[in-house]
Design brief:
The complex is a heterodimer of chains A (337) and B (298). Chain A has 337 residues and is mainly α. Chain A has 17 helices and 2 strands. Chain A has a two-stranded antiparallel ribbon with strand order 1-2. In chain A, helix 10 packs across helix 12. Classes of the chains: A mainly alpha (337), B mainly alpha (298).
């Protein structure tokens, strides 16, 4: 444990206490948002590892979340359920044979996502430049095309439903805490320092003997692993998944979260998640019709997205550090002494 | 496949390739001078298509005037994008610029979505484009002939500007070394603006061609087209205009050929560009005619 100091234990205890009392404090709706926030913390913190810490713009989360969601869903559905669900084509034998408990299913999701990440990383990281962004953006679309066109595995555009809902806030919160601890350990390890070096100056990093290809691949695979797990949790939380669920909007939300919180700050990613997920619930009024001083406007579905994209552009132009910059909570308190 | 079908598919491929080429040029030129994947470029194309749609449907102007309006709207969008979103970030880390570009792209998509509504719009091109020409057995529409002809015309003008005028020389110099060029007393921001004007105007023409050929417009139509056009630019060699054109044609031909020869793979048509992209990155990252951009300039 790299960061097992007093501060860290205090935060850990506060979060555990919060998770334990939350079912007694919040209503149903609040709990659903809270579960959402915990899953997005997992996604945002792992996404931050490749974007913020390693400085490689990647647009992959929707693809890996989709992979994780499908793997977990297929592993949790019983054989009878699969026969019932698959209407377009008979499920392929290995889909039927895949039957796991929640924890192994989530781990398998992570492993599959990492394996795909590795396949993508090899061509992309061989070259300098921003190809990662475009390849991962394309990957998100390809996953959707594949999901729609392989009905024997994914049930095509109908998707999978009636996934057993076996999680509650203790699961999502607990996995979120474990993820944050594990990612922080990566960040404060020698690999994490190498990732930051690659971000700050790739030429210099490679000159002092860092294998930049290896470090970038490592960061990418690690973040894919946790995004796969997050996707699995999302599938169990929603109990219904379809190819249309994992659009670029998911990636865009995560991008705003980490930019707003501060690229490269894990505390920032957590704050950003709470602000963006909470805020997007709050901003729902924008999409419906409004009454401004007696003048009733039409409903504008999509206005929320306009606000989100403006927030992203404005933060990038005028407050590039975001809320936390590259700092963590503990850095701020340490300075005061 | 008989000879007539072959010719017909060949012409379809040229037409599709022309559209990819027109859009890919914008990507490659902006990448050349700014080293930026301009995610908003395909959405500028989409804005042009919607501007033409609006001009024809609501303003009820003629098709030619609608085309001019669409080009103007997209040029203004391009200049504004550069001035408002990219210019303040010229000297900041590349990742900031990329994230801003994604923000602009998402903004354009959603502002069009809010203004025009999410339902797909059908583009009413003049009937002239739908008349069917019988040419010794092959059935063609005027579109598949007009598109390549106009594209070749525009490309010749572009190549003339790039290689025979002072501004073209400045653009090429800027792509070579932006800092030194600025020291030589060339206003680099003005040249970058010209690059955005050229790119956006060509994208607008591409967008209108696209709207004529595939007359269903959605605010998110640009994403897939842009992805393919960018893959075409990388295939031809990013930074090289003739490479972008070559890449666009190769991609157009391959898509048409795959669908014609293996109809069962039709659903995976959109994945071809992606496969190309990966193969190029593995085998020859500089593309067919590319310049080596491996050394980071900033």
């Amino acid at each position: 444990m790299a960061k097992l100091n007093k501060n860290f234990i205090v935060y850990l205890l506060i979060s555990i206490a919060f998770i334990c009392i939350s079912p007694y404090v919040f209503e149903d709706y609040g709990m659903r948002i809270l579960n959402n926030i915990f899953i997005f913390i997992i996604l945002a913190v792992s996404y931050n590892l490749i974007n913020g810490i390693t400085g490689q713009l990647s647009l992959e989360p929707n693809g890996f979340v989709a992979i994780g969601a499908y793997v977990t869903a297929l592993a949790l559905l019983s054989e009878d359920m699969k026969w019932e669900l698959f209407q377009l084509e008979d499920p392929s034998p290995w889909v039927l044979g895949l039957n796991l408990d929640l924890i192994p299913a989530l781990l398998l999701s992570g492993v599959v996502a990492s394996a795909v990440a590795f396949v993508l990383a090899v061509p992309v990281f061989r070259v300098r430049g921003d190809y990662l962004a475009i390849v991962t953006l394309g990957f998100g679309f390809i996953i959707k095309v594949l999901a729609i066109n392989s009905p024997e595995v994914t049930n095509g555009s109908i998707g999978l439903n009636e996934i057993p809902s076996v999680i509650n806030v203790y699961w999502t919160g607990g996995i979120a805490i474990v993820t944050v601890i594990l990612i922080l350990n990566v960040v404060y390890s020698k690999y994490g320092r190498a990732m930051k070096a690659v971000r700050d100056d790739e030429d210099a990093a490679s000159a002092i003997g860092i294998d930049t290809f290896k470090i970038k691949t490592l960061a990418f695979i690690t973040s894919a692993f946790f995004e796969g797990i997050g996707g699995g949790l999302l599938a169990v939380l929603l109990t219904t998944i379809s190819p249309d669920l994992f659009t670029f909007f998911l990636t865009f939300q995560l991008l705003i979260i980490i930019v707003l919180g501060g690229l490269g700050s894990m505390s920032g990613a957590i704050i950003g998640t709470v602000l963006v997920i909470g805020g997007s619930e709050w901003l729902r009024f924008l999409d419906s019709s409004m009454n401004i001083f007696g003048y009733v406007t039409d409903a504008h579905p999509g206005l929320r997205m306009v606000v989100f994209s403006l927030v992203l552009i404005i933060v990038m132009l005028f407050a590039r550090e975001g809320i936390m910059g590259k700092k963590e909570f503990s850095d701020i308190f340490r300075k005061k002494k | 496949m008989d000879f007539i079908t072959f010719i017909q598919q060949l012409i379809n491929g040229i037409s599709l390739g022309s559209m990819y080429a027109l859009i890919a040029i914008g990507y490659t030129m902006v990448y050349g001078v700014l080293r930026l994947i301009n995610f908003a470029h395909a959405d500028i194309m989409m804005v042009a298509a919607f501007a033409a749609f609006f001009a024809i449907d609501s303003l009820e102007v003629s098709f030619v005037l609608a085309t001019i309006i669409a080009i103007l709207v997209s040029v203004v969008t391009g200049i504004l994008t550069d001035r408002v979103a990219y210019k303040p970030l010229r000297h900041s880390p590349r990742i900031s610029l990329l994230i801003t570009a994604i923000g602009v792209s998402f903004f354009l998509e959603n502002i069009v979505n809010v203004t025009f509504g999410g339902t797909p719009k059908s583009f009413n091109a003049p009937e002239f484009f739908d008349t069917i020409i019988e040419l010794s057995g092959a059935t063609l529409t005027p579109t598949v002939i007009i598109v390549p002809v106009v594209t070749v015309l525009l490309l010749s003008i572009l190549l003339f500007i790039l290689y025979r005028t002072k501004y073209g020389m400045a653009i090429r110099a800027l792509a070579f070394d932006i800092k030194t060029v600025s020291l030589m007393g060339i206003d680099s921001n003005r040249i970058i603006m010209i690059v955005f004007i050229i790119g956006s105007a060509l994208a607008a023409v591409g967008g209108i061609f696209w709207a004529i050929s595939y007359p269903i417009l959605t605010p998110y139509m640009g994403v897939m087209i842009g992805l393919k056009a960018f893959a075409a630019a990388v295939l031809g060699g990013i930074g090289s205009v003739s490479g972008a054109v070559l890449g666009g044609f190769i991609l157009g031909f391959t898509e048409v050929a795959v669908v014609a020869l293996y109809p069962e793979l039709g659903a995976y048509k959109d994945a071809i560009a992606f496969v190309f992209l990966i193969i190029v990155l593995v085998l020859k990252p500089t593309g067919i005619m590319g310049i080596n951009f491996e050394k980071s300039r900033f």
